[in-house]
Amino acid sequence: MMKTLENYINGEWQSSISTQYTSVHNPATQEVIAQVPSGPDTVKDVEKAIQYAQKAYLEWKDVPAMKRVQPLFKMKTLLEDHKEEIARLITNECGKTYAESLGEIQRAIENVEVACATYVLNQSEFSENIAPGIDEFMIRQPLGVCACITPFNFPVMIPFWFLPYAIATGNSFILKPSEKVPATMQYVFDLIHKNLDLPKGLLSLVHGGKDSVDSLLRHPDVKAISFVGSTPIAKYIYSEGAKYGKRVQAQGGAKNPIVIMPDADIDMTTKIITDSVYGCAGQRCLAASLVITVGDDKKIKDALVEAAKSRKVGYGLEDGIEMGPVISQESKTRIQGLIQKGIAEGANFLVDGTQKNVSGFDRGNFLYPTILENVPLDKEIISTEIFGPVMSLLNFKSMEDSIRFINSGRYGNMACIFTQDGLSARQFRSEAMAGNIGINVGVAAPVAQFPFSGWKESFFGDLHAQGRHGIEFYTQTKVVIERWPKTWSRTF
Predict the structure, then answer these.
(1) Catalytic one among 94, 116, 285, 416?
(2) What are the φ/ψ torsions at residue 308 (nearest 5 degrees)?
(3) Distance between terminal CA atoms of the chain?
(4) Residue 90 and residue 107: Cα distance in Å, rounded?
(5) Which pLDDT value is given to residue 270?
(6) Cβ atoms 195, 78 nearer than 8 A
(7) For residue 492, what pLDDT band results from cuts at 50, 70 and 90?
(8) What three-state secondary structure class fits 475?
(9) 3-class SS of residue 491
């Protein structure tokens, strides 16, 4: 049943002030599943949320850290107990398979688990007698109101890169989800509303587009902005947020390469790389896009082609489906346009996934796995993030040539190598210019206690999401030098 979505402000659900709404579609069926507030009047909703978030922060910041993490233990249980319902919601509004949706929720749960240890991770540093009778120590204190702007491809996981760390360190938190997938976090916030005893205003959910985002970027009471999305928008978020004096972490796009060495195990490598390229229909910032073979590549090429052709595409809630649709018709059209431009510029199809339909889902945004070969290295499709199920298959004579090619690119989110040689793997991990490195791993996604790293135009900021970086991002340091003796012993 279609829902008109509301904002969660001051501990209650409130209808938007805006009278404009945008439809949210199931990408497999085109069914309208929700109406989400949009338009310039959503700024008023955001301003109201910030007002109450500031009030909640002033109360929450002085709550002992051990008590601040207690709600997170119950939050973890809520996600575990309701993961099946949440996974179905993710699949219906995002398009990924049910198994992929369950995996996403598990990643969210892991971040809650790590954030439960904030009272330990946030402990201060202390040095006694830095001079006679003088001690010095550093403490971490919360920032204030923190906001997060999240993309469509991971409706639950990405908000939980940020939310648990923000409130565990003493901040209040406002989430602005993608207007393409707002219903899943609406459900999660309703679970939180009904089951957790949090101060009113501590957590807020607001909807809208660029007007809402700009309001968060410019409001003086918002002290920190977290963002995940495309590189052009990440640059805007970073520069605009910094202009208004905010702390910003902005995760951008990617063009992730995988190098296959001649000694790689063909069966294992094929299975892992196929999942990397086509998992979530290629709509993730750690999806492999450039697959680079070194030396003779006939056997691995044939295996990759066969695996792509056999991938089962369809509605993500049906049994046996391995890949769902892309998010929208606009996205599908864009991906098809990039593929055709690549063909026009000299590439050729090894596998053409652009001309197929899924039986019974003719209106769905489906593309099938595609492999391009002989892609010119100086053309757009090599440097552009496609964000779809498309592999560009390249070949170089040596690993060193591959590394030089990888390092010449503008992005630096992930780079992987498949090999059985430890020396090659060591050289690759040392020299490849990317923030997340995979060795015989196709999706180098850090677990929650490690930062989700990113280099070059894949990340703007200093502190990444997750783990200790999350704790550091949501706190500011204060150094205290104190003296208690009654006599002054310093001489000049």
Answers:
(1) 285
(2) -65, -45
(3) 80
(4) 14
(5) 98
(6) yes
(7) low
(8) strand
(9) coil
